[in-house]
Write a structure and sequence with these properties.
about 300 residues; mainly alpha; Na+/H+ antiporter like fold
């Protein structure tokens, strides 16, 4: 167990060292806040889709198809449960703040931080479960998430489907289901571009953290409460719900780890777009990202013990 804790902590520490590069560069003025959206666009439109495609360049087998179907059902059910349990949260807060906190508690950084974490801790073979989670995350995020932040009239099927993560997944699934393996020249290019996902995402997150008002973050009790729910309660709930179902260890560990990743940066973007509490959203993203260096190794060990992987 100690060895597994140290292994997960080492991988999380590696991610935070990469974040530190972005943080220091931003503080030195070498990486400006104006350049972060351009880097994010590169990550979303090129790097992430390539990583998704590369992760599903696998031999199609009945066993793998069955595992993917089972994983999809579990993730759909888990997000439905999360959404239901979030309804009574933060009702004493002003409406704009409550919506931001509720959204930030529900939706974690499944793409930028979750997939790199799964790849580092569990290996490339577990990425298929992370990809499934990301697809369902996007569907919930652009449906329930939009309703939560902006109301039912704001929901757009076009936005829910035509985003780089979903498009990349559709291409990846089409190639996988048709049994198409990319030729070496194309496959290598896709693989190299996809391998940029972890370092580029971490540098971007670190640069975003450099702009945070740290004093304000630690003075706000509601933000700290939301961070506790996101980083501790969510993975614990997931671990307990999945335990009686006995999914195979990689799937179990993937879903528990992804439940414990910090709040998604899209929380602040949605708050800005739909007129909710932007400051609280950004602060929640920052504080959960910082504290996750302590909580994620614990989530990994808990999942490994309960799944029998450790």
């Amino acid at each position: 167990m100690l060895e597994y804790l140290l292994m997960v902590a080492s991988q999380v520490g590696t991610m935070f060292l990469m974040m530190a590069v972005g943080f220091v560069l931003a503080k030195m003025g070498k990486l400006t806040q104006a350049s972060i959206p351009q880097m994010t666009n590169l990550l979303l439109t090129v790097v992430l889709p390539c990583m998704l495609i590369n992760s599903l360049q696998l031999e199609r087998t009945p066993a793998l198809l069955g595992a993917m179907e089972y994983a999809s059902l579990l993730v759909i059910a888990l997000y439905a449960l999360y959404c239901l349990l979030s309804i009574p949260l933060f009702r004493k807060q002003p409406e704009a703040t409550a919506k931001a906190l509720r959204f930030g508690t529900l939706y974690g950084n499944a793409g930028f931080m979750g997939l790199p974490l799964i790849q580092l801790v569990l290996g490339d073979h577990a990425l298929v479960y992370g990809v499934i989670n990301l697809v369902i995350f996007n569907v919930y995020n652009w449906s329930h998430g939009v309703v939560l932040m902006g109301g039912r009239k704001q929901v757009s099927l076009k936005q829910a489907v035509l985003n780089p993560g979903i498009i990349g997944t559709i291409i990846a699934l089409a190639l996988f289901l048709c049994g198409i393996i990319l030729p070496p020249m194309v496959g290598n290019a896709v693989s190299f571009l996809g391998s940029m996902n972890t370092p580029l995402a971490m540098v971007i997150i670190g640069a975003q953290m450099a702009a945070a008002d740290w004093k304000a973050v630690f003075r706000n009790r509601s933000i700290l409460a939301a961070a506790l729910l996101k980083l501790v309660a969510m993975p614990l709930l997931t671990a307990l719900v999945l335990f009686p179902l006995h999914p195979e260890p990689d799937l179990y560990c993937t879903l528990v780890l992804l439940a414990g990743v910090p709040t998604a940066s899209i929380t602040a973007m949605f708050a800005q777009k739909y007129g909710q509490d932007v400051s609280t959203s950004a602060q929640l993203v920052t504080v959960t990202t910082l504290f996750s260096v302590l909580t994620l190794p614990c989530c990994g060990v808990l999942a490994a013990i309960l799944s029998g992987a450790a």
